[in-house]
Inverse folding.
């Protein structure tokens, strides 16, 4: 079963045509919950135009998820690392896709 969300509310048909709307959904696959995020071109353009100055925060409680999600953008991986440096400390847990390791 796919559960759609926008903001804190379940997705309504009236939201479907809104310019810049984002689709958030969860579904179960192979015993795991999958978070699906659909960004409009307007969302993506804003991320490009305002790299480092814009973000999307998703409250996990609103989607029955055990974590919150934050999406950021930067011109490069190094730029994003600079943006995050002040918030990352010795107790920060992080995982990285092995394909991204050099």
């Amino acid at each position: 079963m796919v559960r759609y969300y926008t903001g804190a509310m379940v997705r309504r048909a009236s939201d479907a045509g809104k310019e810049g709307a984002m689709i958030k959904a969860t579904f179960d696959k192979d015993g795991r919950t999958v978070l699906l995020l659909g960004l409009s071109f307007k969302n993506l353009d804003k991320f490009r135009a305002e790299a480092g100055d814009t973000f999307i925060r998703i409250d996990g409680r609103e989607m029955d998820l055990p974590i919150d999600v934050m999406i950021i953008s930067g011109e490069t991986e190094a730029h994003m690392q600079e943006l995050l440096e002040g918030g990352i400390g010795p107790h920060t847990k992080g995982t990285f896709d092995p394909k991204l390791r050099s």
In short: The radius of gyration is 16 Å. Residues 3-88 form one domain. The chain has one domain: 3-88. Strands lie at 3-6, 9-10, 23-29, 32-38, 55-58, 69-72.
